[in-house]
Amino acid sequence: MRGSVGAGKWGEVAARREIARLEAMKFSTLLAAVAAVSSPANADDRIQPWAENPRFWQYDGKPVMLLGASSDDNLFQWRAEELVPHLDAMAAAGGNYVRCTMSDRPDRDWDVYPYARRQDGKYDLDQWNAAYWEKFARFLKETAAREIIVQIEVWDRFDYARDNWPPHPYNPKNNVNYSADESGLAAAYPDHPGANKQPFFFTTPEQRDNATLLRYQQRFVERMLDHALPYGHVLYCIDNETSGEEAWATYWAGFIAEKAKAMGAAVCVTEMWDDWDLQADRHRRTLDHPERYAFGDVSQNNQKKGQEHWDNFQWARAYVAKQPRPLNTVKTYGADGGRHGNERDGIERWWRHVIGGAASARFHRPDSGLGLSEKSVASLKAARLLEGVAKFWDLTPDAQSAALSGREKNEAFHTADAAQGIDVIYFTDGGEVALKVADDKARSVRWIDIAKGAWHGEAQPVSGRQITLKPPGGGHWVAVVRRDAP
């Protein structure tokens, strides 16, 4: 809205308010319709912490381990001929988990922005880009059909800074809805978004109370929820690796929860903080508030390496023990040529979280991660083989490696299902350790070759209270030791 304050401008204001009122009515009508099919009788079908072990998820009323490997963070922007084969290939390998940033970075040839563009080249934030939302709707439908859990990130700070900001519709020079003075937004933000110089993330009432901009932010989130809330396979994360104010996350967590409540549904929300150290105070904004955040996302632990990576996660797992809930890792960094560790780092990180009690693990997109590739597919297959004999939600990680002797740091990691007499040991690169067991009963050991995603040989008998375990070769291996195995 530009120009002097006169009858024309106020007429424009009234028209926009009427549009907003009608859209709110439309949203309420949609929620009422969805509520009719989202009754308490099928509430357990939605993704939520498992009632019997809330460190893990349940979906469709059954416990589920979320494992993924996908080659982009906003797959919904892909064309159908790209998206469907990608989802099929991941599902065939055992993947059931993808990340979905509501991102609109112009890094591919697609209809990136959610808003309509006028003939004069400017955007109208009161009008939608149908192609953007049609792609999002298709993505939700296709993932639901394959029972692939979607973790949405509503805001990504990198979309609103540096090279991504000058062409963005929210940039006041690019839209017809507000000026720089009205919105408080500048034409450029050249610094890393971690500097927190972008007012876009300070709009809520407990922050700078920027009603002009907040209205459009609310409208966008409501539109996203129009599509997502009817589905039960969606998790919600407020931001990507933010270092912003707690009030921003608190506001949007409440906003999403309120919209879900209006249709009689409960959804799971979290925030992802940027700190690499999970013991940092900022992570406690989430970990200390189970009433607000049903799960945690600790993906930034994947900036750590080796033993420290394991120890950091085990600290977080112990920290939430009084009110346990899922700890997700939607981004596993590490790929040769990338900026966040090499391929070995990526596979180690993914497996340490899988063995260590995480509720989810996904390989990050290239070139920061392995994406959906031959090596990530092998890990997916190997993990599902392991799940066939040892359910992840029945395993208790050996945080201090107390059962392993002769172990060097980062050599091997242990978890166990004591009730079933199953021990699982992940070796990062060959090696040799001795496993201490509780009795002299007959046992067998069988190896999973992670590089091939397959069993290696047949089960072999082992005995004694100290069982020596040495992988068949170098590289990544999993040993499955079973008591009284057939």
Which terms summarize this structure?
486 residues; alpha/beta; 4-stranded parallel sheet; elongated; disordered N terminus
Question: Low-confidence parts lasting 5 or more residues at pLDDT below 50?
Answer: 1-41
Number of helices: 10
Distance between the termini: 75 Å
Looking across the biggest beta sheet, what order are the strands in?
A: 14-16-17-22-19-20
- Rg over C-alpha atoms, rounded to the nearest angstrom: 24 Å
Provide mean pLDDT, rounded.
Answer: 91
The general outline is: elongated
Major sheet details: 6 strands, antiparallel
Structural class: alpha/beta
The helical percent reads 25-40%
Please report the total strand number as a whole number: 22
Strand content: 15-25%
Topology:
Elements: H1 7-37, E1 48-49, E2 57-59, E3 62-64, E4 66-69, H2 80-92, E5 97-101, E6 115-117, E7 123-128, H3 130-145, E8 149-156, H4 180-183, H5 211-228, E9 234-240, H6 246-262, E10 269-270, H7 281-287, E11 296-297, H8 306-319, E12 327-328, H9 343-356, E13 360-363, H10 374-389, E14 396-397, E15 404-405, E16 412-417, E17 422-427, E18 433-436, E19 443-449, E20 454-462, E21 466-469, E22 477-483
Parallel strand pairs: 4-13, 5-8, 8-9, 9-10, 11-12
Antiparallel strand pairs: 1-2, 2-3, 6-7, 14-16, 15-18, 16-17, 17-22, 18-21, 19-20, 19-22
Helix pairs in contact: 1-5, 2-3, 8-9
